[in-house]
Write a structure and sequence with these properties.
The chain is mainly α and about 70 residues long. Helices cover about 55% and strands about 0% of the residues. It has a domain at about 25-55. The chain contains two helices and no strands. The model has no long low-confidence stretch (mean pLDDT about 80).
């Protein structure tokens, strides 16, 4: 019975501390909005950088229509 109560208390204490102990964003709503905006802009720039690294931003040389290629 003692193990059951102890395990329940441990589970409750761990469930209440889900996430980081120190918040990543400020508690001030105006400052937090700026921080979220900067974070989202950085993620958007990261996607552009990823496409540039893997040459996904280059124009395609494929034709928009499928062609047969053989003699008909």
């Amino acid at each position: 019975m003692r193990k059951w109560i102890l395990s329940t208390l441990v589970a409750i204490s761990l469930a209440s501390n889900v996430g980081c102990m120190i918040p990543i964003y400020s508690g001030d709503p105006v400052r937090r909005g700026k921080q979220l905006f900067y974070t989202s802009e950085n993620l958007r720039a990261f996607l552009d950088e990823w496409e540039r690294i893997w040459f996904l931003d280059q124009p395609t040389h494929l034709t928009p229509h499928s062609t047969h290629g053989g003699i008909i």
